[in-house]
Q: What sequence folds into this?
């Protein structure tokens, strides 16, 4: 198996691209971090599970319409390679914001990811978000 430090940096970049796309309200930028058949699962923090670009895009677009201000800080990345084209990892996320209706939300969670090398580069194949503290999601509806 041949992987490099650059592979790990590209995986971390994908996770940061996701956060930047959400925080700039650019759904396509956030979506670009994911493989075409990816899974995004936030049921444990009170949201939904989405499969594939179409479903994930729809969620990101609804989020961009509903949220007035937000931020995502992703840190403490750990990446382990299964082979030259597949990896798994974890990272912490701290997110806070408010919707256009004034509802506030905050989540401190663990992202458990799998990654796949695609012709476009490393992408998130699956992301399961689990709370590390009690999520504050009152009035957050997307």
A:
């Amino acid at each position: 198996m041949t992987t490099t430090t650059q592979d790990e940096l590209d995986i971390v970049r994908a996770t940061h691209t996701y956060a930047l796309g959400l925080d700039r309200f650019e759904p396509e930028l956030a979506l670009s971090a994911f493989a075409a058949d990816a899974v995004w699962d936030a049921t444990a923090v009170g949201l939904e599970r989405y499969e594939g670009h179409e479903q994930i895009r729809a969620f990101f677009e609804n989020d961009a319409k509903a949220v007035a201000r937000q931020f995502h800080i992703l840190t403490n990345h750990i990446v382990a390679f299964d082979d030259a084209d597949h990896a798994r990892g974890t990272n912490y996320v701290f997110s806070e914001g408010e919707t256009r209706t004034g509802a506030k939300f905050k989540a401190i969670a663990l992202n458990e990811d799998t990654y796949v090398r695609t012709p476009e580069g490393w992408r998130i194949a699956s992301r399961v978000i689990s709370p590390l503290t009690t999520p504050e999601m009152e009035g957050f509806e997307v």
User: Anything to note?
Assistant: Strands lie at 34-41, 49-51, 67-83, 86-99, 104-118, 121-131. The longest helix spans residues 5-23. The CA atoms of residues 38 and 125 lie 5 Å apart. The chain is about 25% helix and 50% strand.
